[in-house]
């Protein structure tokens, strides 16, 4: 076993020990096939008010512009599929937001992995990324063989579906690289057919400005009236395209205590949500990703659903 293979094995073993679902590695280089797709998507204004998607175009496509001297992109998946979900008579919250904000949970694990690499292998420089920087997470995960991009534009894996977070370490160490897997969507159009706002405009293309996740989280202005009665009771995010995907029948509950919801969350009814106070909001969502939309954003969404 040469050094590259040895280091790769060490990193993947440690990633598993830290609780990651899987780890794939690809060469840090320009994402040639993604460039025209991203450009077309932006030109068609499918990013809505997410103007930040237009920034750092080159960095999004070339990790060596993001991390100087980088050689490898280590992609990691972390399961968040819950063992229990909200009661059926409730306004809905995307499953990823049930527990502690994933940015904190994953950042800590990534820091531990980078420290392990530096202590066990030597002088290695790199940066950790959790969807808050111009990195095309899904493209890198697919490139490193962790799954394929489904027709709903999420990463899909045969054994575990798609209820997981994607994160990266971009480092200046050459490793043994994985190869992409094949697409297993076949003729299935479940996600396209089920999308309440018809945001999946064609297979593999999502108009972000129509997506319920965008409307309830990213959009700061009022939700356009054209989406009235099309929101399917989602008050923060949306899981419809994932819930109907046949591959998610293989999803297994996560084992990360920090992703467990606040005890009150799952039992709250529509009436409870309609009457939510800022104090309750702060208590239930103390360290949650839901804080991103703030109390005012969540109540705006609830008001839009109930009117």
Automatic annotation (TrEMBL):
Q: What class of enzyme is it?
A: oxidoreductase
Q: Which cofactor does it need?
A: cob(II)alamin; [4Fe-4S] cluster
Please state every residue range assigned to the domain named 4Fe-4S ferredoxin-type: 173-205
Specify where it is mainly localized.
cytoplasm
Where found in the cell? Cytoplasm
Q: Which residues does the Swiss-Prot or TrEMBL record annotate as the active site?
A: 131 (proton donor)
Q: How is the cofactor bound?
A: Binds 2 [4Fe-4S] clusters per monomer.
Q: Which PROSITE patterns did the record assign?
A: 4FE4S_FER_1, 4FE4S_FER_2
* Entry binding sites for [4Fe-4S] cluster 2: 195, 211, 238, 241
Going by the UniProt record, its keywords in alphabetical order are: 4Fe-4S, Cobalamin, Cobalt, Cytoplasm, Iron, Iron-sulfur, Metal-binding, Oxidoreductase, Queuosine biosynthesis, tRNA processing
- Assembly and interaction partners: Monomer.
List the protein's name: Epoxyqueuosine reductase
**Which taxonomic lineage is given here?**
Bacteria, Pseudomonadati, Bacteroidota, Flavobacteriia, Flavobacteriales
């Amino acid at each position: 076993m040469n050094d590259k293979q040895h280091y790769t094995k060490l990193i993947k073993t440690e990633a598993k020990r830290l609780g990651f679902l899987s780890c794939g590695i690809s060469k840090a280089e320009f994402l040639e096939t993604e460039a025209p797709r991203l450009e077309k998507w932006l030109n068609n204004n499918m990013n809505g008010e997410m103007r930040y998607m237009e920034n750092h175009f080159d960095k999004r496509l070339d990790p060596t512009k993001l991390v100087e001297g980088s050689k490898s992109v280590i992609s990691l998946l972390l399961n968040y599929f819950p063992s229990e979900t909200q009661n059926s008579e409730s306004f809905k919250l995307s499953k990823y937001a049930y527990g502690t904000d994933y940015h904190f949970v994953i950042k800590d694990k990534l820091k531990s992995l980078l420290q392990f690499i530096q202590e066990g292998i030597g002088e290695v420089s790199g940066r950790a990324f959790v969807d808050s920087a111009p990195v095309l997470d899904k493209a890198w995960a697919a490139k490193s063989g962790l799954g394929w991009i489904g027709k709903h534009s999420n990463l899909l894996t045969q054994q575990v579906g798609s209820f997981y977070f994607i994160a990266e370490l971009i480092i200046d160490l050459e490793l043994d690289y994985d190869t992409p897997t094949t697409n297993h969507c076949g003729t299935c159009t479940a996600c396209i057919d089920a999308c309440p706002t018809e945001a999946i405009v064609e297979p593999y293309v999502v108009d972000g400005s129509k997506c319920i996740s965008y409307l309830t989280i990213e959009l700061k202005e009022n939700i356009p009236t054209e989406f009235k009665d099309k929101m399917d009771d989602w008050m923060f995010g949306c899981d419809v395209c994932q819930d109907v995907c046949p591959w998610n029948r293989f999803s297994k509950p996560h084992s990360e205590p920090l992703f467990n919801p606040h005890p009150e969350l799952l039992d709250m009814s529509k009436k409870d949500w309609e009457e939510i106070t800022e104090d309750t909001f702060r208590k239930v969502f103390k360290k949650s990703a839901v804080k991103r939309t703030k109390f005012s954003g969540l109540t705006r969404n609830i008001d839009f659903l109930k009117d």
